[in-house]
Structure formats: C-alpha cells, structure tokens
Amino acid sequence: MKLHLCLIAWIAVILVPYEGIAADRPNVVMIISDDHAWTDYGFMGHPHIQTPNIDALARSSLTFPRGYVTSSLCCPSLASMITGRYPHQHKVTSNDPPIPKGMTNQEFNRSPLFQAGRERMNLHLESAKTLPTLLKSAGYRSLQTGKWWQGHYSRGGFTDGMTKGGRHGDDGLTIGRKGMEPIMTFMDDCKKSSEPFMVWYAPLMPHDPHTPPDRLLEKYRNKTDSIHIAKYWAMIEWFDETVGQLMDGLKEKGLADNTIVVYLADNGWIQSPDNSRYAPKSKQSQFDGGLRTPIMIHWPSKVAPRMSQSLAQSIDILPTILKATGLPNDPSLPGINLLDEPTLQSRDSIFGCCFTHNSNDLDEPSKSLRWRWMIDGNTKLTVPNASVEPNDSIALYQLDTDPSETKNVAESNQAKVQEMRKKLDEWWLPSP
Q1: What is the CA 94 to chain-centroid distance, rounded?
Q2: What count of other Cβ atoms lies within 10 Å of the Cβ of residue 270?
Q3: Whole-prediction pTM value?
C-alpha cells in the first residue's frame, strides 16, 4: 500500500496539475543549438568537449537522450519545432526555393524569383500556426533571436525580434556571438510589465563560420590533429557558455522557477577533419548523425529531473508547452505531451522525412522528398524516394548495437522491413 501511494505521488510530480499551473502562466525559453551532433556533449559521453552548463541543464531536466528532429536540415527542422507539424504537413520542406534551369545559385539568390519563392514558404508557415501566435492569445510576448528563415520575425507571430527578413536571420545571427543583451533587456521589460513571455534563442552556434575565441581554440588545439575539428569543438563550448549566461540571467531576475526551458538542436553535424564542411552521415542525411538530438524539459519544482529512454521528437514540444501554459491542444497535431508519462510510455515509433536542400516544388512535398524514416524501439528503417534518390536502397539498422548505422541488415530481416514499411506508409505515403 505504501509503495502504491509513493508511486501515485511520484507520478503526480511528473504529470503536473496543469489547471492550477495555467493561472501562473509560466514563461517559455527555447534554446536551439545549430548544427550540433547528438554525441557532442559532456553528459552524452564525448571524451574531449566540455559543456558544463548544458550538462547541468540535463541533470536538472526531464532529459531524453533519444530525441529526434523531423528532418536533418535547418529550415524545415525549425519550422517543425515552431508549428508542431512534420515538414510534409507545414510544407516548408527545404532551405530554399527551386532554382530555375539555367540560373546559378548566386544569380537565383539575387533574383525576384528567389524572393517570390521565400514568400511562398512564409505563407505556408503562417497557415500552419506557430507557437508564438498561439501564446499571444494568452497574453504572452515573444522574442525571436538567432536563426529565423520565414521573413520578418512578426511572420512567425513573435511580438518582438531581431530578424528583419534576411534569408536565415540577418541581425538575429549576432545573438550569442556578440552577447545576450537583447534577451536580457526583453526579460527585464516583461518582468516590469508582469507579462508572461517566450524567448526563441536559436543562435548561429556552433554553426559555421567556426570562429571561436582564441582561448577556447587553444584549449582544444592539442586534442586533435585537425584544426577544423578543434574549431568545431571550441564553438560548442562557446555556445555552452551562452547557455550558462541565459540560465544565470533567469535566476538573477527571479524568473527561473516559473520558466519552462526547452533544449534541443536543429540538426546534427559531423565535422570533416579535412575542411570546414560537414562529413557524410550528418547534416542533410537520413542517419542519426543528422537527426538525433537530446531534448530537455526544465521546469524547477514542476518537473522532476530524470533521464528518460523513451523516444521524444521536436514535434512534441508545441503540445507540451500548450498543455503546460493552459492553452487548448489542437487534436490535429501529431506530437504528444512529453510530460504525460502514460502516453510517452505507450509510444513505440517515431517518424520523419528528409528533403532536398532547394525545393523541387514549393506546394507538393513529395516532389522534394529524399527519404522517409522511422524508428520502432531500437530498430530504424530508411526508405528512399526512387525519383530523387535512385541509387539508394531500403536500409534497416539496429541502433542499440549499431548506433553509427554501419550495418544494413534489411536483407536478412525482410519480415521486419515489411512490418515497419506498413507503419511508415500508414504515417505518410507520398504521391507518386
């Protein structure tokens, strides 16, 4: 009987009594790392990279080491976070519009056709409804900083922001690299006016250009033979320092206890040792090196810290925040509330899709599709779109014994392939 009562009390801590909390209107801070591999944190076991502030956040959060984004490319991944929908649902599948035949990439980027294409993408995002738009109805102010692809910050429903409409962030990209003052000032203003707030902190970090401070580069220079890897590692610690500044700011302003902090990366990055670009099986790929990220939900006194081995995904963030802030959930959203333990435990599969860097068709996602993928327990299936990836084949990986996805076991496990393919097709079967 005592054990039963203790279990009920523990569940009550995890499953927050939302009706009472809604009146408190918790603040929301989203911290989104940019081009950052899931392995590249101290708490995830990296032998050299030091991330003391993110490690501390992981220890004090409901942390999902097995978190995933929907797509391994910045723009569609961020769009999924802020809408709670898969790329084929919100239709922002790629970083950029289609390049017309006969035009170079540079010519296209300077042309009216490029701006027209980006505007089409902006309209898709607006029609999907964003988290800032939904929070605005409950009296929230919201600040955009860092990466933002969809025009002026107001197009995403933000009340305040830094990006004026440049391709992926313009003035917003200075956040973190040139200090945290815009966020600190915004939080001060909201505290003075007693307004609940949301902060979108998505800095261009550790994203290239990899220009870390000399003091950090020197720290890693003798830990690798590659200057490119050393710079990337140093960039991660520089980003970690800004996370510490943001968390310290919440504490110093007396806002920490009533603020939900969400952490994840937009997509992975495996640094090439030979140049400043990324290596295969990371960004833009169907592999975990591009798709996997730790996901954290930090809410002092409301959510008990623990490591969960359940599968979590970026589409879960929006419904989780809606429930925590007392807003009604949209039943059409595909994600789940990560603070609802029974629902979390009942999930056995997650899904996603990867698309071309430049869209092939802004209104028909299947035309730009490269791969669909799903994870069922510890087994991962990837299915290429033959019209875009004609030289690839179906792959099956056992992630618990092969986390780097080096052994395709599809041929010897055809029954499992067919079972998972059926689920994948039920999730989304693109038009031919």
Answers
A1: 15
A2: 21
A3: 0.94
